[in-house]
């Protein structure tokens, strides 16, 4: 699922843009969820509260919080989201580059150019996807897998452990393990209750691992052989390299 935000205070334009993007995503065969905002502050607050969009189409000129101010706030919490600015005035393009846009689209936009930029953004998101997406209630979230220390099973919920925070949502750890099987960030199932980020393991013993936050997690008896094999394989590979 690719998460897209369209932020524009023109209701007609915002609706047209969302409809065009939905149709383009269907043609490309991409599962895409589009959320609309009529004010930059609302969008920035959503990102501040943990929603991680993959692509944002952001109008620069809005009555309340304009796109440039919104982008500055967004970048404090999400430095990787691809921002495509939309404006009726091309002179804003230079100013917009201070908050690292992916592209700049001038109103009224050309459909072929919109499709070109959207396709390029989707390709970049999918090619460099180091993120984990989950749904909690009716909200979609995206987090960086590199920042996850480990996932912990907690009855019917799963805790996502970061260095400075913990999140929780309803899911089975088995399902998360399957979804991360081909992920670019490697996770090891060391226990029925723990799925750990290999890069955050600072020390491995036969029966436990120490994580980068100082927490000691047990390795279950039946998984000790597998973890030892994985650890030695990585050690041998790094020695050869």
Description:
It is built from seven helices and 15 strands. With 241 residues, the protein is α/β, with parallel strands linked by helices. It folds into two domains: 2-127, Rossmann fold, CATH 3.40.50.2300; 145-240, LytTr DNA-binding domain (OB fold (Dihydrolipoamide Acetyltransferase, E2P)), CATH 2.40.50.1020. The protein has a five-stranded parallel β-sheet with strand order 2-1-3-4-5. Helix 1 (11-28) crosses helix 5 and helix 2 (40-48) runs parallel beside helix 3. The protein is elongated.
Low-confidence stretches: 93-98, 237-241
What's the CATH C level of the largest domain?
A: Alpha Beta
Q: What is the string of helix and strand elements?
A: EHEHEHEHEHEEEEEHEEEEEH
Largest sheet: 5 strands, parallel
Rounded to an integer, what's the Rg over CA atoms? Answer: 21 Å
CATH architecture of the largest domain: 3-Layer(aba) Sandwich
Q: What is the percentage of strand-forming residues?
A: 25-35%
The tally of beta strands, per DSSP, is 15
Per CATH, what is the topology of the largest domain? Rossmann fold
Mean pLDDT: 85
- Gap between N and C termini: 36 Å
Tell me the number of structural domains: 2
Please give the share of residues in helix: 25-40%
Q: How would you sum up the global shape?
A: elongated
Per CATH, the superfamily of the largest domain is Response regulator
Assembly state: single chain
Helix/strand class:
alpha/beta
Adjacency order of strands in the biggest sheet: 2-1-3-4-5
List keywords for this structure.
single chain; 241 residues; alpha/beta; Rossmann fold; 2 domains; elongated; disordered C terminus
